[in-house]
Amino acid sequence: MSQGFDYIIVGAGTAGCLLANRLSADPHKRVLLIEAGGKDDYHWIHIPVGYLHCIGNPRTDWCFKTEAEAGLNDRSLRYPRGKVLGGCSSINGMIYMRGQSRDYDHWADITGDDTWRWERVLKAFRKHESHWRLDKPDTAPAGFAALHGPLPGRKGEWRVEQQRLRWPILDAFAAAANQAGIPATGDFNAGTNEGVGYFEVNQRKGWRWNTAKAFLRPTTYGRPNFELWTGAQVQKLRLLHDDTGLRCAGVEVLTPHGLERPWLNAGGEVILSAGAIGSPHLLQLSGIGPAALLQKVGIPMVLDLPGVGGNLQDHLQIRTVYKVQGARTLNTRAASLLGKALIGLEYAVRRSGPMSMAPSQLGAFTRSSPDKTWPDLQYHVQPLSLDAFGEPLHRFNAITASVCNLNPTSRGWVAATSPDATVAPAIKPNYLSTAEDRHVAAQSLRVTRNILAQPALAPFKPEEYKPGPQYQTEEDLARMAGEIGTTIFHPVGTCRMGRREDPGAVVDSRLRVLGVRGLRVADASVMPTITSGNTNSPTLMIAEKLAGWLVG
């Protein structure tokens, strides 16, 4: 390279696209965005139901797998991560969710930095959001503007819309949840999440709205100070020792044209936005991580930073299935060629119907037991069922009520297995490895059974298919939770924020890698604890916070 860059962003996913937009807005700063995957020009990325064709597809997914999990009865799980412009926002469930206010207040306590408190992060969320209710001020409930911005709507890039279909069986589930003591809600993002209602989604007029559309097109692409490299995998960071210590001087990138070494201008920064798997893996490949791991793998150690790759947290969804009668579900609606044709026609004409579906339509937040101060369970309810993701739908009508523990105490890790950047790291979430998580899992199945037993669902004669009514004891329920549980694709925490004296911290509260100048991490890996809900929009907020610090 004949010239350097002021910012090199590794990973054009959820966080990287926003950062590229914000940082390149200054015409005096040269910005390079590097993506190992390809462009988001695959048609199934943009059709909401296309996640079925993107997850497990090496064109759009890294196709990782976990190590065998004892808590899941020695099963290994597929572990999807986006490998395309937009990252996981191009293949995820599109659910718009901020989390709970307590999540961010806890981050502030951990880091000692009040800029992470709920009332402060709200400003970062609001800066890029464009909410459907803000288009129609008369539909906004009291207090909505204080949480989501001034009325009428702003022109934020991150579009939030209502889903474009409803299912009577899901309406009945919502009514049953009300009867079980879960209130109705029209806003999951007011700070507590508690209630039941249809999820809002990151879509625009029936199309998926990923971060590449939101933040790269059209403005960022046209800037002369911005470069985007796709199909370019960063091999490692270029780290140098000078009189002031260790600093990051650039990166080494394998592109279709060979090995490139873009370097930083004086005072420039590399920002890792490769996600909760990619960012710690790249640090380890560069010699930053636990000394024992680096020695074992044969990577020369540059900086012993024990927390890199540790603290992995994820939401394990326990997929309960109930057969129903007298209700229309996708299982039978999509069973015939005619049914599939009608579904396709509805989407082509109206951009609605099952092809516009997020993977989960109805949501609920509640408590696993009355002594819980905050909701600690989240439901993703679907008008369909199947044995495992990617397999055919069942031939009988059924619904799936997936429930997850929002605040798991189990902790796992990500570890390099080779100095070769093309070799996938080992991923070990350690699901259900604590007594507390096993107890909450058993309790969540009891909560689900209570909802399904309410009068509102009685006309549909729900019959428990998975895990099965024969399992009643705490031990049986915890074991079956491990049998039917799977990832909901929310890995976080592997480069966690913390105070400088915290031995497990990787970055400080301003996302600077401890012990290395010119290097930051901005993605879900920096979360010290997982947010209480879907993690995509909180990751955008993290990027927005960093952009504010860098550009003012």
Automatic annotation (TrEMBL):
<keyword id="KW-0274">FAD</keyword>
<dbReference type="InterPro" id="IPR036188">
    <property type="entry name" value="FAD/NAD-bd_sf"/>
</dbReference>
<feature type="domain" description="Glucose-methanol-choline oxidoreductase N-terminal">
    <location>
        <begin position="275"/>
        <end position="289"/>
    </location>
</feature>
<comment type="similarity">
    <text>Belongs to the GMC oxidoreductase family.</text>
</comment>
<dbReference type="InterPro" id="IPR012132">
    <property type="entry name" value="GMC_OxRdtase"/>
</dbReference>
<dbReference type="Pfam" id="PF00732">
    <property type="entry name" value="GMC_oxred_N"/>
</dbReference>
<protein>
    <submittedName>
        <fullName>GMC family oxidoreductase</fullName>
    </submittedName>
</protein>
<dbReference type="Pfam" id="PF05199">
    <property type="entry name" value="GMC_oxred_C"/>
</dbReference>
<keyword id="KW-0285">Flavoprotein</keyword>
<dbReference type="InterPro" id="IPR007867">
    <property type="entry name" value="GMC_OxRtase_C"/>
</dbReference>
<dbReference type="InterPro" id="IPR000172">
    <property type="entry name" value="GMC_OxRdtase_N"/>
</dbReference>
